[in-house]
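Researcher: We're teaching a course module on how sequence relates to structure. For the next exercise, students receive a sequence and then see the predicted structure as tokens, so they can try to spot secondary structure elements on their own. Here is the exercise chain.
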Amino acid sequence: MKRNKSFSGTPFYLVATPIGNLEEFSPRAVNVLRSVDFICAEDTRTSGVLLNHFGIKKELISVHKFNEQSKLELILNKLKNGEKGAFISDAGYPLISDPGHPLVKALIANDFSVSVINGPSALLPALIGSALDTETFTFIGFLKGNNKDVLNTLKRYKSYKDTLIIYEAPHRVVKTIATIYTVFAERKLVIARELSKLHEEYIYTSLAEFSANPPTDLKGEIVLVIEGNKDEENNDLADLLDKVELLISNENMSVKKATSVVALLYNVSKNKLYNAYLKR
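Model: And here is the predicted structure for the students to work with:
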């Protein structure tokens, strides 16, 4: 167990930045960035515009997904020499569909404390404005990989009862929603775009309705909020099939053996489970 009190010394700050409207940049965030010696930024050009707007002049260190491992030693040495630092992404929170995870792991491993400075986020406004269930939700972020990878990811979340949140780029959104529809079938869908900006918009639709007649004017940063699986019987069956899959992959069981074991453990028909797996 490790307990790090953020302000027992000077922490390394993880600062959320505006996703569009600069008025959402809090006075605390500005003051923190003014107080540090250096700022790590996903894109120093983008962050430079933001920092210049608020009169913040600091050493900028480029830290992005292609170089973040190689920059760890530099950052850790600066902190060991008594310098104070912060990390910002282009928009929103660092680490949320953005770089920073290796850095935070390294900071904790080297006994540096961290403090997160709260601020703008796209996923929560999208969820809150969606009118879908907010009790439980799962943030997926961007769907990564090729089409097969995307399909496998969606199949993993198909049985979730939680509201699902996905980020997508405007030039891919129509194709992505069509793919989601093939896996999830009919569900409520809310598209939130340009959040906090002049052309902010919420589109309340369904996967079927959107796929049948997709708009052609969707621009800007997009968040998809998708209704969770409300089919109780199919949810239960999907959970059992996931258990069958685990036995096959982890225990090298045959399909017949794995379905028999799961059927026995959960008191269901092994024939029904076996046939459902074959149709999956």
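Model: If you want an answer key for the exercise: Residues 232-251 form the longest helix (20 residues). The chain has a mean pLDDT of 93.
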